[in-house]
Structure formats: C-alpha cells, structure tokens
Amino acid sequence: MSYTHTTLGTLKSQLASRLGDSGKVFWFDTELGRYLTEALRTWGSLSAFWRERGTFATVTSTAFYSLQTQLSGLLGYTVTDKSVISDLLDHLMEPPVTDWTVYPGTEMFTLDDLTRAVERRRDQFLAETGAVLTRQDVSITPTGRVSLPDTVIDVRRLVWRSSAGVNSHLWREDEWALTAATRGLWAVNPSTPSAYSVMATQPVQVQLAPVPVVAGTLDLIPFSTGVALDPATAATVLGIPDDLAWVIKWGALADLLGRDGPASDPARSAFAESRYQQGIQIARMLASVVMAEINGVPLVSDSL
Predict the structure, then answer these.
(1) Which of 89, 123, 244, 260 is the most exposed place for a label (fewest CB within 10 A)?
(2) How high does pLDDT run on average in the chain?
C-alpha cells in the first residue's frame, strides 16, 4: 500500500511555505515537484526504504530475466534525458525549455552542452558501477580473438555455446596464467573454450582459450554504454534505476561548471563532483533484490 496522509500537492505547498514562497512565484509548482521527487529517490537510494514484493512467471529453459522488464512497475526505468536537463536548468538559473528545438537560455550553455554532459556522465556511471547488465549473443567463427560490439564497456559473464547447443562457462583469466598452466598449448591446440582474457587484446575484444575448433556462439552478459540522447527529437529513457538518476544530474552539473568560459564555477563544480562520487559509492552497494522465492520457497540470492 502507499501513504495517503500527505498528497504530493500538499507536500509541494508545504515546501513552498518553508521556502517563503507560498504563492509559488519564484519556485514554480512543477519545479517543486521535481525537487520532491529527487529527494524521495535520493532517500530511497540511501536507505533502501522503498520495498515491495513483485512476482513474474518463469519459462522452461530460460535462465535469465530482465527485472526491469518483468517487474516494470517496480524496477522499470522511467527517468528521461528531458527530466534531468530540466533539473539542470533549474540549478543553473536558466529558463525552462518549452520548445525543445529552441534553447531559451543564456549564452553560457546550449542544449547540446546539457545533452552531452548528461550522456557522458550516464555512460561514466554505467562504467563505474556495472549497475545495469544486458544479455546478447555473438556468433563467431573458429577464431581465438573475438570482436564484441563497441557499446560493450566490460564483460561480466561469458559462456561458450557450441553449434549443438552445449554450454561451457568461461572463466576470466590472463594470457600469462593460461600459458603457465598449459605451456602455451591453449593457443595451438584448438578445443572447447574454457576461459577468456581481455588483458592482451585490443579494446572491445576477448581472447578465447583454448581457441575454438568449430564455430559457435558467445552468450555475453556485459555492461554497456547507453543509447544516444537527442531531446530535441524525443524524450529518451536514461536506462538506469530511477532512484539513482540524481547521480547523473550532479555529474553533468560538475562538467558544465568545471569547464573554461563564462560558465566556470570551480567551487560549485567541486561540490557537484563530490555528490556524484557519493552516488557512485551508493550505487555499488545498493541491492535491487533483497529476497527471492520460487513457488513460495525462499532461496539465497546473489550477484552475478
């Protein structure tokens, strides 16, 4: 159940009164609503206070499920680039955007400046936390080094699947350990892969060991960059947990105020960066699932 003793409208009025602006002349109603939403999300990420039970049906022979899809009402991603940019405009004392094809603000910023700052910090957040995992298949020929999609930041789990459908989990190793253990035979005697390395490869490549003898498929679970943002065309979901969207805002604000030019504000940039780094630490500790059951039987849940 949800709380009913205080509505959002009542809470906005109380906030406006506390700010000495009960008529909502300086702080508009929509702006107050955004601040309250962010406050509740920040509180949720700090305390894990908002908990709810959700269920979904499993499917035979399906091992992995996207929780933000299966439990979209609880864990779905809804915060968009337009929402974060609107928060940034409030903080920067810039006018709100009513037509996203025309930037109404001062010459200190452009809409592209704001968009690229949000996009850059969103991808940095994904790289530093590994909080969002995806799953994809990569078909390969019998070769030792495999190129992955250039959106892949790092590999969390890798499985070799033969053409016959037999799966083999690949352990993460490095070329030195593989060579010391097999005297280099992993590179010259093709077989079923049992390990992979990213130590000596180019970026966005993995080395399979042993080199596969036949073609197959890599069942890949990485964390990857997000989609490109273009608020002038349409609102785009950031692709991170809603309760952590405030982290992106502070990171983008640090970038916008930390560059040279009329917008330079080192003190506020440093404060915003500290809030971003705080959010990164919180994101690394925050659990999406605290208890799991299958058919009513509790089981121990663990990270991948």
Answers:
(1) 260
(2) 92
